Prior knowledge:
Blueprint: E1 12-16, H1 27-33, E2 38-43, H2 51-58, E3 68-71, H3 78-96, E4 102-106, H4 115-126, E5 132-135, H5 140-147, E6 159-163, H6 168-177, E7 180-184, H7 190-199, E8 206-210, E9 218-220, E10 235-240
Parallel strand pairs: 1-4, 1-5, 2-3, 2-4, 6-7
Antiparallel strand pairs: 7-10, 8-9, 8-10
Helix pairs in contact: 3-4
S-adenosylmethionine binds near residues 213 and 236.
Protein name: Precorrin-2 C(20)-methyltransferase
InterPro entries: 4pyrrol_Mease, 4pyrrol_Methylase_sf, 4pyrrole_Mease_sub1, 4pyrrole_Mease_sub2, CobI/CbiL, CobI/CbiL/CobIJ_dom
Family: Belongs to the precorrin methyltransferase family.
Amino acid sequence: MSTMTPRPPGRLIGASLGPGDPALITRRAWDALQSGARWLYPVKKAESASYALGIVERGGLHVPADAEALVFPMTRDPVALARAWSRAATRTVELLREGRDLVFLVEGDASTFATFGHLARVVRELAPEVEVDTIPGVSAFAAAAAITATPLAEEDETFAVIPAAYGIEVIARLIDDFDTLVLLKVKPLLDELIELLRQRGLLQHACFIEKVGAPEERIVHDVAGLAGEKVNYLSLLLVRNPERVRGELRRGCRKRL
Ligand SMILES: C[S@@+](CC[C@H](N)C(=O)[O-])C[C@H]1O[C@@H](n2cnc3c(N)ncnc32)[C@H](O)[C@@H]1O
């Protein structure tokens, strides 16, 4: 009988890198990248560039020779998606079982609409003994709010973050309910969103931000001027509604004057 104890698997670390400016990589993520953990980074297709890897390279870190790309295709085809996810998770578990930590590079924040959450869940299903460490980071909408000096919420204001795919009717309702709306993944619906903002008289309270923090960053205040344009997937809209009517707040939750 063998007395050898099996080697424990490595940890799976989700390193949030912020939305594009390497100065927004947190110290914890920076340390994880330099900890000797093996790097994994997401790509849309084999051999295509990785936005997340680009952030780290701009930060001046050398990409280790054994860094590995995992393919997460941008498709709605459920078969292709399931196949890609299964391949990515199986490979991740295989590498973790070699005993070395893995650091998965995440654009923005790893807990906000990120591939990492799903990857970590599938990995845990395949290998429940794997420890997962999620390093928080700066989301694209936080950086977009900062660079455009748009408050997301002040005092007792509210804000909502929603993928535009929920559609115009839902967004029209949310405009009434929140002081600020953050609309993500706006690319396919941009013209309809511009029309909605025009109808509601909110065009001058909206701002479009593309690739915030990256060298190609674009900030557009004249949102109507974007009508008909094909924008990048990495773009969002911030919309303030100064007309929002607020309900009563409970006593005790308000700052005393
Ligand atoms: C899958 S989500 C990723 C969100 C990311 N994990 C974060 O914390 O910001 C992708 C959407 O986030 C927004 N986004 C992500 N990075 C961006 C960037 N650098 N500039 C502008 N919008 C970005 C866009 O709306 C894009 O369609």
